[in-house]
Amino acid sequence: MSANENIEQGLGFIPKFDDKGLITAIAQDADSGQILMVAYMNAEALALTIETGNATYFSRSRKKLWKKGEQSGHTQKVQQILTDCDQDCLILKVKTDQGQCHVGYNSCFYRKLSKNTKDTLEFVAEKVYDPKQAYGK
Amino acid sequence: MSANENIEQGLGFIPKFDDKGLITAIAQDADSGQILMVAYMNAEALALTIETGNATYFSRSRKKLWKKGEQSGHTQKVQQILTDCDQDCLILKVKTDQGQCHVGYNSCFYRKLSKNTKDTLEFVAEKVYDPKQAYGK
What we know:
Two copies of one chain form a homodimer.
Chain A (H helix, E strand, L loop, with lengths): L2 H7 L13 E7 L5 E7 L1 H10 L3 E4 L4 E4 L9 E7 L5 E7 L15 E3 L7 E3 L7 H5 L2
Parallel strand pairs in A: 1-6
Antiparallel strand pairs in A: 1-2, 3-4, 5-6, 7-8
């Protein structure tokens, strides 16, 4: 197999981190299929996620490891990790028991683009918890 | 509202492109919820997607606009566009009628990390078309 074939069709997990050392990770609800959030992992975050079964990311704003739920308690138990063809993106199939978005929604994707507009959103979800309580703000 | 509140809780669609002028876009099957692929859009690709209803990306490898299916015929009809809290990631809910991954699978995510390993994949899907035929290689 060529190097490319090996990445695309082989059985070796060879995650491709970008020029900042990060890989995109999508957290998807293992039961409903709802996409909950998108975040980034460095090699250490990925290793910790695999080792502990708790989703751990790298916060680009805080520039440090971020165990999901460390502040809010809203953790993600990882059931399965999938990789895509060129291994530069991961899906984490996760079990959760509380809203996953820091704004208070179950998913970060709580707004859609309104039909026949290019700049107007509408809400598609209701808040499921109070972030002020969860984050103690 | 503060600028941040406006982005997170407002009704204005203000997509945040990264330092390369790109935003991450996840194509998700509108019916099954399966995540099909992850790609990137520049402002022009996003505008074309909204305008035409056909998913159009920016190919990072070819450095040009890429109307999904332009070579393979395996297009994506966009039913809905969702944005996340900080508006730096999009979900396209799409209708498709053919496999979406250039390797021949319905989804690019056709392999999972094997249980209790950190470096070994296993296949979770079967090919649904012959890429040699679709791409004329």
